[in-house]
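Lecture notes, structural biology module. Today: joint structure prediction for complexes of two components.
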Amino acid sequence: MTDSTDPVGPHGAPATPAAGRGLSRFSINQMTVRQLTLPELTEACARLGVPGVGLWREPVQMYGVDAAAKLVRDAGLAVTTLCRGGFLTAAEPAARGRALDDNRAAVDEAAALGTDTLVLVSGGLPPGSRDLPGARERIAEGVGVLAPYARERGVRLAIEPLHPMFAADRCAVSTLGQALDIAERFPAGEVGVVVDTYHVWWDDRAPADVARAGAGGRIHSFQLADWVTPLPAGVLNGRGQLGDGVIDLRAWRERVDGAGYSGPVEVELFNEGLWERDGLEVLAETAMRYVRHVL
Amino acid sequence: MTDSTDPVGPHGAPATPAAGRGLSRFSINQMTVRQLTLPELTEACARLGVPGVGLWREPVQMYGVDAAAKLVRDAGLAVTTLCRGGFLTAAEPAARGRALDDNRAAVDEAAALGTDTLVLVSGGLPPGSRDLPGARERIAEGVGVLAPYARERGVRLAIEPLHPMFAADRCAVSTLGQALDIAERFPAGEVGVVVDTYHVWWDDRAPADVARAGAGGRIHSFQLADWVTPLPAGVLNGRGQLGDGVIDLRAWRERVDGAGYSGPVEVELFNEGLWERDGLEVLAETAMRYVRHVL
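The predicted structure, tokenised, for the full assembly:
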């Protein structure tokens, strides 16, 4: 959530001393260095001149939402996103009600943390279901219920299309085009999309959809990870360090910028190898890779 | 390759005694039961009333192409496809020449085996490359070189889009729409597409592209596998037995039929669990699953 009295850009990127060193738009997603505690993370960001962080609900809840909010505020860090709401595909009324309640709590946490962007991972097929269009329609309905609640609290919902390999069990929204089809049912200030290179890099239609999203003011978050093979079992934790894979990250950054985006560039890596290393070292490496492969 | 003097349908599906038992369009891809030798496979098909097989080049070459051709011919089996040509993304001239030569050999083998359909798996990014559009363009160029050679031998090229999780290392053609964009540069009798449920089930644009492919006479093969999670490491051998996963296989069969397709329905499963079992038992199970979940 941006505050017009703060010296921040339109997407929460603060003007910091790091700007001159190329990190002015860089944000580290907490999952990239999940081995760090929240105080370790904020201290590491301060040491390295990293101006933004993307946070996750579970570690924030464990630390305490208000305490986490104070910690990042005192460190002068922008919270670029909160991950994540969503999982809106349940068909059964009670489960659906619980999902909506949980999303309202996520909105409240986003507002408390001072971020204007809640990332939504939409959810996969309910157990026993083979109805993908039905799941997608329930996602749109859920977003419609949540958008006004979020708007009142200064939070935008950002629908993240996940790679089609997650369509069954994690996210029935598989392309930027699908995410925009849902987002565009609502005002851009309420609902937009996440462009994450890991999920959209393969899609020949994604460049046109980036332009479409930018023209509509709907790029609410831009995230980076590289694509490396072979994929690990379960395929969740195989995201590559920037530069280790096949994605032309600079071309994607230029494409997103060219669509009118000027906000944070958040690096979100789920990678067992990175998690086994020293977190401060991984953060420093990630920042260097960002400068080398993205700027 | 169909012969107008044989009692076969337009796509090589023979009229067999099995027709009345629901298997008239059923074809078993050799990889589904790769634990069976070629003679074991043909004998099992005869015992179970399976009228068609999809063959793979490597086991056919090991057995001998002419001997394999005689074996399936004597068993009265239709060879519905030969897998596979393709891998046309090399940029380096010598590697490119070798790939084209290998594809010409694949066409010759298809003709010798009596199938009219050579499946193309297009190939991924060359080592060190991040240029996905370039790879796709080289695929189209390669298809253009091969199509006349194949036509002269009565063989159609069938471009198979593979799931986007294979875009980097196996197949830069990730959607039915992309496959059609390439195929439609050539006559439908020369170049078409493979519709494989495993690769396209997640794609909200695929139904429209099935209709487009059918209207153009370009559905050259229809293959089935189910989508099960979690995916195994490497993601290659995680295709589910029909009915074990989340794909509405009957809806896809009806969709493809509705687009005007009346040819073989080939079941191609890469699945370590199935490979560890008795091959005859797996073939019988697959035929039963086909009747239950697809017809």
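Point to remember: Strands of chain A lie at 26-29, 52-56, 78-86, 117-121, 156-159, 191-196, 219-224, 226-227, 239-240, 265-267.
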